[in-house]
């Protein structure tokens, strides 16, 4: 693993207390993120995939310091952003910005888009005030908009163009990390490709680092250098893109891959179709042992006894399953019954 990652998340936990006031009972919490560790080298893209409710957005919001984490460390370069507060946190915030799914919701409908970008420069005190108008033009050009479009309102743009504006605003303060939560999910497929290509170009030109969340495996495969699969608040498998897509090991990853309509059959769980039945358990009552055992076609009684650790089974490939065996140095995917 990279010794000097830009982003390093260690044992991150976000537990939401249940109920309020008198009905709040000690020890009852939604364990949305329950001990997540990963690191992202500068200039690369780290993807997080997983079913709805697995804790992807909560992880992103905790990294952004928009949701208070209840445990663990978050470091950005040399800076302990997980424990930063007040003026220090405000200063550090320039370095990490977020792009959400719905560009319409994240833009003020009554603000001209040039002013929206300008507001970000003013808020984060980027450069001298008199240079900011030029910087707005530069940012709009960088995301492929024409300078005269600065005077238009968000509703005068298409969804793809609005996401370009959101990107321009996010880039205002020269951030190092962009946290992107389903950045293209609201867009038509053809437009998705344009925005993804733009994001890749910006990454190369500005040496940006992306934390990239998507439920679309095709998009993740296109964008990410390294990918983590989350299930019920924990990472169950993590590897470089090629490894993870070509040699998935965890039964849950096999099931996710096999359910993806966009994948060709050879890649679907390597020939076997694995049906996922039922819903994940609630993060309010996390089962003992392996969290996936209740839905896993390969589960044995021992799987429900203790939670398996996330183990490095080959260089850079981590998996949380006691049934994955390493034979002659090669990890073997679990044989499905
Ligand atoms: N503020 C909150 N208070 C209580 N529970 C919450 C809160 N925010 C999220 N949760 C719960 O935490 C779990 C993880 O939610 P999260 O939004 O992170 O999932 P997700 O992986 O992003 O899902 P999706 O794919 O639907 O976006 C869910 O069970 C959710 O209901
Ligand atoms: Mg989400």
CATH homolog superfamily of the domain at 7-101 and 198-286 and 294-332:
P-loop containing nucleotide triphosphate hydrolases
Number of beta strands: 13
Main sheet, how many strands, which sense, barrel? 8 strands, mixed
Mean residue pLDDT = 91
**Secondary-structure element order, N to C:** EEEHEHEHHHEHEHEEHHEEEE
Supply the number of helical segments: 9
**Strand coverage percent:** 15-25%
| Uncertain residue ranges | none
Bound molecules: adenosine-5'-triphosphate, magnesium ion
Distance linking N and C termini: 34 Å
Shape: globular
Highest CATH level, the class of the domain at 7-101 and 198-286 and 294-332:
Alpha Beta
Going by CATH, the architecture of the domain at 7-101 and 198-286 and 294-332 would be 3-Layer(aba) Sandwich
Question: How would you portray this structure in words?
Answer:
The protein is α/β, with parallel strands linked by helices. The protein has a domain at 7-101 and 198-286 and 294-332: Rossmann fold. Helix content is 26%, strand content 22%. The chain has nine helices and 13 strands. It has helices at 56-63, 86-92, 113-123, 132-142, 159-170, 189-206, 217-223, 241-246, 251-259, and strands at residues 7-17, 29-40, 45-49, 71-76, 96-99, 177-181, 209-213, 226-231, 234-240, 311-314, 317-319, 325-327, 330-332. The strands form three sheets. The chain has an eight-stranded mixed beta sheet, sandwiched between helices. It has a three-stranded antiparallel beta sheet with strand order 2-1-4, with helices on one face. Strands 12-13 form a two-stranded antiparallel sheet. A hairpin with a 2-residue loop joins strand 12 and strand 13 (330-332). The longest helix is centred in the middle third of the chain and has 18 residues, at 189-206. The radius of gyration is 21 Å and the shape is globular. The two termini are 34 Å apart. The model has no long low-confidence stretch (mean pLDDT 91). The structure holds adenosine-5'-triphosphate (ATP) and magnesium ion. The site of magnesium ion (MG) has 2 residues, from helix 1.
